[in-house]
Amino acid sequence: MELKQQAIEILRGNDRGGYTLPNATGLYPAQWNWDSCLAALGWAQFDESRAVAEIEMLFGGQWPDGMVPHILFHGDDSSYFPNASVWQAGPTGRSSGITQPLVAATIVRHLFEHTSDPSIRARLTALVPKLLASHRWCYSARDPHASGLVSIIHPWESGMDNSPLWDDALNAVEPGRPVAHLRKDIGFAAAEHRPTGPQYDRYINLVIKLRHDGYRPDRVYDVAPFRVADIGFNAILQRANQDLRLLLAAVGDGAGAGEVAAMEKSTAAAIAQCWHEEDGFFYGLETRTGATIRKPGIQGLLPLFADAGMATRHPRLVERLESWLARVAYGAPSFEPGRPEFEPQRYWRGPVWLIVNWMLVDGLRHNGLADLARRIRRDSLALVERAGFAEYFNPLTGEPLGGSGFSWTAAMYLVLAADTE
Ligand code: DGY
After folding, report:
1. Is the CB of 161 under 6 A from ligand 1?
2. Which ligand 1 atom sits closest to the C-alpha of 203?
3. Residue 194 C-alpha to ligand 1 middle, in angstroms?
4. Cα(329) to centroid of ligand 1, in Å?
5. Could you please report the per-residue DSSP string of 310-350?
6. Which of 35, 143, 243, 391 is catalytic?
7. CA dihedral (154, 110, 95, 392) positive or negative
8. Pocket test for ligand 1, best of 156, 170, 334 (most atoms within 8 A of CB)
């Protein structure tokens, strides 16, 4: 079967009636926030209505305060730890109590602009106020002092769980009780591809602490033992701000568009402040201590996705990406190769993720860097051709890593393969 058809079959096979499992082996038996949004982009290649349903179902789990949880548990979650009974979160008790990168507005704008079907457009229009509520929540709950940078309160919120960028902030968190005996992920994926035991202990201890505070948005910012203004999370949010502003204008909500323009302005200024002149790179910070997180992760390249003028302002950022690409067989690695923390097999400490590649391809093109975008697109397709629809890939060898039959890899393959640039 040709790869495009295989990708379609993966999405169909992982479909659970309105939401798509990240994969169907039991590793992730629920609806994950950014997995779902990015899967919708793949669905849109062959079934627009199903793509919209994915986002509708995700926003069906939006909390009254506007937060869209990072996991919605719709069915049997017994193969996952921590499942709904551990989280005990939200109005229905069937979600996690934290969020994930806010990519939804970017995806909805894409669907909105690509459809010619008025009924699809009407359904997308109905989502726009919910998107606005989620951005409002993000700024009010996670940037209460209006710095322009929002903070995450758990590494899982970054979507890049075990990135070396969180090592210091996470090590400062109490490990709590060991959870090695409760972990289920390493029954489905190789332990050496996954976060370590000490990281897991702290992930779960953070959940317990947030649960203790009822996940209250007016409290968790102050009490969270882990609090980081991730440059990646903020860059993705900034891109989504632009997409949301354009959507609001398109649906005739001028006041909403103005409100988001103000968010965008303050975040643009704050991201500009994250530029580290000496290193020629973007870094986030620990907002509990003010310490700069001086580590070169893929997060620091995502301002290219947020701003079409970034490469002109900071050509050294592009040179840095080129230097990473020169050191791997397949780009883009999620952490700078050659650094002591770089691990080409372990989750977000080095492997290539096609969803990030899609963001880079898009950002590089908007920055006028078509050749570099082509290289990353070509590597992405080559990885799937070589190794199938893995969760992530070794940048040095192309080896498939993590789970198999992955929805967002299939989705990104469909999107990038359809691309003719
Ligand atoms: C996991 O369980 O590995 C997820 O990445 C958390 O969201």
Report:
1. yes
2. 6
3. 10
4. 27
5. HHHH-HHHHHHHHHHHHT-SSS-BSB-TTSTT--TTSTTSS
6. 391
7. negative
8. 156
Place of tokens 């199903």: 50
Under 8 Å between Cβ of 285 and 229 = yes
Predicted TM-score (pTM) of the model is: 0.98
161 part of the active site: yes
Instruction: Write b or e for each residue in 327-348: b if 16 or more Cβ atoms lie within 10 A of its Cβ, otherwise e.
Output: ebbbbbbbbbbeeebbbbbbbb
Which of 161, 188, 391, 407 to mutate for ligand 1's pocket (most ligand atoms within 8 Å of CB)?
161
Task: Quote the CA–CA distance of 86 and 216 in Å, as a whole number.
Answer: 17
CA of 156 to the centre of ligand 1 (A): 6
**3-class DSSP state of 243:** helix
Q: Which two tokens stand for residue 112?
A: 């909105």
- 279 has catalytic annotation: no
pLDDT, one tens digit for every residue, the chain (421 residues)? 799 999 999 999 999 999 999 999 999 999 999 999 999 999 999 999 999 999 999 999 999 999 999 999 999 999 999 999 999 999 999 999 999 999 999 999 999 999 999 999 999 999 999 999 999 999 999 999 999 999 999 999 999 999 999 999 999 999 999 999 999 999 999 999 999 999 999 999 999 999 999 999 999 999 999 999 999 999 999 999 999 999 999 999 999 999 999 999 999 999 999 999 999 999 999 999 999 999 999 999 999 999 999 999 999 999 999 999 999 999 999 999 999 999 999 999 999 999 999 999 999 999 999 999 999 999 999 999 999 999 999 999 999 999 999 999 999 999 999 987 7
**Cα–Cα nearest to 245, from 261, 234, 266:** 261
**Residue 79 CA to ligand 1 centre (angstroms):** 13
- Does 157 contact ligand 1 (Cβ within 6 A)? no
Per annotation, catalytic residue among 35, 161, 230, 259: 161
